Amino acid sequence: NAGVTQTPKFQVLKTGQSMTLQCAQDMNHNSMYWYRQDPGMGLRLIYYSASEGTTDKGEVPNGYNVSRLNKREFSLRLESAAPSQTSVYFCASSDTTGTPHNEQFFGPGTRLTVL
Amino acid sequence: AQSVTQLGSHVSVSEGALVLLRCNYSSSVPPYLFWYVQYPNQGLQLLLKYTTGATLVKGINGFEAEFKKSETSFHLTKPSAHMSDAAEYFCAVSDSSNTGKLIFGQGTTLQVKP
């Protein structure tokens, strides 16, 4: 089991460029999440998906879009990158079918720099 | 609305000393509380969680935390620090919407000195 995988691991963009961060999990989890981590601010939820075909905004959704392609994959897209989106991005997944309070499993992260 | 406050962004202890990382929460419903650890350049992994029942929760690597409702606290402790415990630690509370969303504290970086 690979768990939660993310690609790419590192990315440098210029302001205004677009890109998609990929996330996949092989644990058959129904829920998936995208967070950003900034120094001194912990992790903040960008978007989440409780099941295939559904997505909802989190705390900081502006400037991002997501797609839950299937049960395994949950992608995050930056349409027009801004320097304020320089951050480390984490994808996570969880089995919330029986209870919403199960452990979340995290990927290794994508370090994004926007110049 | 739920919130989490971690007191102290950096904590430094000597190897073998007690580790105490502080977490206070605010919740409008009975809280579900978590501690996660992040080693350098890695994702987060679960240390322990409190759902219901016993208020003293034991986790991996010798860590434990006690849920104190009267103090709205969920402090993380370990009797004797190891060099390998150096990492960033996050306290989190489940969102009241029952969707599995987590609200994280700001994080505390633990330094262990030889």
Structure notes:
The complex is a heterodimer of chains A (115) and B (114). Chain A is mainly β. Chain A contains no helices and 11 strands. In chain A, strands 2, 4, 5, 6, 9, 10 and 11 form a 7-stranded mixed sheet that branches. A 4-stranded antiparallel sheet of chain A has the order 1-3-8-7, with no helix packed on it. Chain B is built from no helices and 11 strands. In chain B, the strands form 2 sheets. In chain B, strands 2, 4, 5, 9, 10 and 11 form a 6-stranded mixed sheet that branches. Chain B has a 5-stranded antiparallel sheet with strand order 1-3-8-7-6, with no helix packed on it. Chains A and B meet through strand 5 and strand 9 of A and strand 5 of B.
Let me know the average pLDDT of chain B.
Answer: 93
| Distance linking N and C termini of chain A | 36 Å
Number of helical elements of chain A:
0
Q: Care to count the β-strands of chain B?
A: 11
- Low-confidence residue ranges of chain B: none
Quaternary structure classification = heterodimer
Q: Averaged pLDDT of chain A, please?
A: 95
The largest β sheet of chain B comes out as: 6 strands, mixed
Number of strands of chain A: 11
Class inferred from helices and paired strands of chain B? mainly beta
Helix-strand pattern of chain A: EEEEEEEEEEE
Query: Strand content of the residues of chain B, in percent?
Result: over 45%
Extract low-pLDDT stretches of chain A. none
Structural class of chain A: mainly beta
Proportion of residues in β-strands of chain A: over 45%
Helix percentage range of chain B: under 10%
Counted by DSSP, the helix tally of chain B is 0
Radius of gyration of chain B, CA atoms, in whole angstroms: 14 Å
